[in-house]
Write a structure and sequence with these properties.
Number of domains: 1
Largest sheet: 3 strands, antiparallel
Shape: globular
Number of strands: 3
Length: 169
């Protein structure tokens, strides 16, 4: 079993700037800000893209997709609930969103990074796991959880922001 030092040293160099970018995005999410709606979707889309990439790289993509889909459906309500804690308002003059600061972006971004890094390390250290059906389902399921939380959170914020004023009260 390799040491933590060996794992870190053998990590591809592109991973570290990616980690800094995730931390920077999360740090920015702590402050209230006004942004275009598309910018709010960056982290959930990153979660979706990384989980779909994991499915595509799987030796049994159908099995990984099944685990992903079940976990996605199970995690959507959690993301929805987390989204209710964040204030959001649509600015009618320019269509941008006023979003309260919060810890979600930092926690979510770091969790995506840690999950993908851990899965990569485990696959590298124990390559035999890549052919184990349970591992394939669990790996897909982890991606589904990340995607479900992100999409549920995003859907809650966007639906509340774009809900007509008569329905909000």
């Amino acid at each position: 079993m390799p040491t933590v030092y060996q794992i870190v040293v053998n990590t591809p160099l592109w991973v570290w700037p990616l980690m800094l970018f995730v931390l920077w995005l999360g740090w920015r999410g702590l402050q209230p800000r006004t942004m275009p709606p598309a910018r709010l979707a960056i982290l959930p889309l990153v979660g979706l893209a990384t989980s779909l990439a994991g499915i595509a790289q799987s030796l049994q993509p159908g099995l990984a997709l099944a685990g992903w889909a079940v976990a996605l459906v199970a995690a959507l309500p959690l993301g929805w609930i987390i989204g209710t804690r964040r204030a959001v308002r649509l600015r009618s003059e320019d269509g941008r969103l006023e979003v309260a600061g919060g810890w979600f972006a930092l926690g979510f971004g770091v969790s995506i990074f840690v999950v993908r890094y851990t899965l990569g390390v485990l696959s590298g250290v124990m390559p035999h796991l890549r052919v184990e059906p349970l591992w394939i389902v669990l790996s897909g399921g982890v991606g589904g959880i990340v995607t479900g939380i992100g999409v549920g959170w995003l859907a809650n914020l966007l639906l509340r922001a774009y809900r007509p004023a008569s329905v909000r009260s």
